[in-house]
Amino acid sequence: MNIIDSRKGGSRSADRNRKKFLRRNKKAIKKAVQDAIQDSTIADVGKGEVDVNLGRGTDEPMFNHRPGTGVTDQVHPGNDRFTSGDQVPRPQGGQGQGPGQAGNSGEGEDEFVFRLSSEEFMDYFMEDLALPNLAKKQLSVIESFKKQKAGFSNEGSPGSLSINRTFKNAVGRRIGQAAAVRKQIKELEAKDPRTEEEEKKLLFLRKKIRNLRFIDDLDIRYVRTETIPETKVNAVMFCLMDVSYSMDEERKDLAKRFYVLLHMFLQRFYNKVDVVFVRHTHVASEVSEQEFFHGKETGGTVVSTGVDLIRKIIDERYPENAWNMYCAQASDGDNFENDENALRESLHKLIPKLQYYAYIDILANKYFGMSGEPSELWGYYDEFSDQYDHFERAAIQGSEDIWPVFRALFKKGEK
Amino acid sequence: MGKPLYTDNEWSFDALERVWDKIEEIAEDKYDLTYFPAQFEMIPYERMLNVYATAGLPNMYHHWSHGKSFVQHEKGYLAGQENLAYEVVINTNPSIAYLMDSNTMTMQTLVMAHASVGHSSFFKHNKLFQEHTDPSSILGFLEYGKEYMKQCEFKYGEAEVERVLDAAHALRFYAIDRYKKPQISRKKRMEKMRAQNKETQQSFNHDHFQINSTTRKELKFKKRPQLREENILRYIMDNSPNLPAWKREVLRIVCEINQYLYPQMHTQVMNEGWACFWHYHIMNDLEDGGHLPEGAMFEFLASHTGVVAQPAYNSPYYSGINVYALGFNIMMDIKRICQDPTDEDREWFPDIAGKDWLPVMKEIVQLFRDDSFIQTYLSPKVMRDMGLFNVLDHIEDEEHLTVTYIHDDEGYKAVRQKLSEQYTFSNNIPDMYVTGHDMQGGRELSITHKERNYIGLDRKTAMQTCIHMRELWGYPVHLDILYTDRTEGAEGVIIP
User: Fold this and answer.
1) What is the span of the domain harbouring residue B109?
2) For B382, which residue in chain A has the nearest alpha carbon?
3) Contact A396, A254 (CB under 8 A)
4) What is the pTM of this model?
5) Contact across the interface for B456 and A66, Cβ inside 8 Å
6) Contacts of A184 (CB under 8 A, 6+ apart)
7) Do B279 and B374 sit in the same domain of this protein?
């Protein structure tokens, strides 16, 4: 009997076919990825699996019969009431098509939905952001570990031999083993005169002490190391966004992608990442993520209110010595004219407390056809950019700009 | 009474070995069955999904459609909507049977009997398989095909290979020689064709529009109106004016694989019926010999009845006729007719009533395929037992369907006829064929769809398929629709 055990080791050909399939449906997948980013919370992006709906499949066309046409016969089983000549009302939706036709028809198929694994999701997410490979690699490392000494063990590699501990053990053992012998020697030495036999024994005992093993296998100890997750400290990420009327869905989507990326990076460096959402119009409020991205607010635009609120939150909940603080502001660049002084003052108080302040200018002047032109707020921030090393600003025109903007922050993180 | 061959219902390699030896003993000694040597492969569900995706063929070339099929089954399976087969077996020598590692020992026993005795003996003896497939060389061929596609992807790019394969797959039901052409062996034809391809290709590469005299003779640039070539893909492969050699080879691989799968499409009822018939007998023999542990028979029967169950037309589980049920019922009935014929059987089946059942059945398995098998051996008793009735769906009657024949004296023959037609594979796909190509003028390829019974051709998918054909052919494709039942005559569509 010839039996092959193929339980282990997946099939690579299945993977290749799947990759080809994914590549073919890139467009639909990208849309699903985008929807997933919009619908899930920042911290959850990339954690779950995502369903991709490809709609009705007509990508494998063949010559088909048109359903519902023609004169067809169909044999069915289980007759319990009919005699020949009976007429039955046409079933709704049924075409009188049967097993022979099933599967031949491309049109009749249900919508085709399949599931993207979280790994694949991240690939598409990163590709969309034009993340370079190095950053991708660093991001995909879920947790970093470090080795830590954790006592001693009897087993180990010669390289990790603990000489100190081994010697200590050896000395102790030698003292213990010699103790009884020394006692005998002392007794014998105390005798005077000694018989020949006693002399012999004394010599023998002294030799015995000299012959005690200097280091025994029992003494050897190795340094034990444990791999433990690297201790990271906590970080809090403030998302500050202008939610006045001019921030439309497209801008919010770009902002969200930026926040997601920031969150992912922070998670790599810190144990715990809190996310605080502060939105502002002419007043600021701390809101849930749902409200932050999807809530509708109207009003003016006074940035300083948001900055003030962040400072207040820091004072109340995040003591500076325990938290690393990051702030990312997204805006279309508008601000109320008279707010300039208040904003300057408030920011000067805030920025020194932070690890990093990022300002992203999203699609400023989109409606004036001057895309790429610096916005009003951009101008205000000139002085901060000059004064603080950890103040960065950038303009984003589309999702592919997010990564370059991010790189600056990433470099800081490496330092 | 012997000792049970296994007691633990968790399978183990030892137990499988003992059981398979016993199954072989029964199959060979008691029933004198012959089949290909068996090879088993124990696989987890992921592999089974992959086996599904490639129609059971190992080492299939890579294509996105296999990935699509994989994710489709995977989703169904993981959501609990779909059960996977306990086994898949393909027609190879040695015969490879894939067994799911999640089966119980009793299920493994059942599927070994089902696949490696039942199906394998069918593959070995059925004429259709003998004529159209070469089970010893298929594995090597698949390996070659996969390797060839890989090289092509490397040389010409994945996208380019994919385009050819997409187009070829669109014609996969029209890539089959339905009748064996006995004059030249397949191998020789291939050699000749390859030589010709090479020559044609060289001359075309040399100068696209200058065709030397030998090529001219071979290509026969003449439209032949009497031609009716159903193997459209092969026609394109043989005659396309400027198909590069590598694309021809890709098409050839697709043609060969489809040709290999062709007998399976025509023998579902018989093949499954025969396999169920044997697993049923062998399991009973094992039980009678005391080789099965206590309780195994109940597990077997529960599974067996599930497999051969036929939900009625008005059941929520109804999705057409279950080929396992139909096949098993007819097979069991043939045995009954041989062993214990009634007057009715003597009247309907004078040739086999009262004969020795084993040789009779072996001969049937050898000579028939689904349509002719049903046409010949579906007995009135099976029709009554299954309550078969025929429903006519007439396009002109928008409100009603008509029950035309049922399982009674007037209806038997007609129901049998209709069911047989239902299992005639060519009835289920539109009738398409090549009528020729014009090499004097616009190099158009002409294909015709012949309408049957007013069943229309789906225009949208037909257009898409024609676009694929055009891609392969390289010049316009002309699609004629021939109405034989109607008075309007014909109409034509051209894909420029």
Assistant:
1) 13-126+267-306
2) A77
3) yes
4) 0.70
5) yes
6) A201, A205
7) no
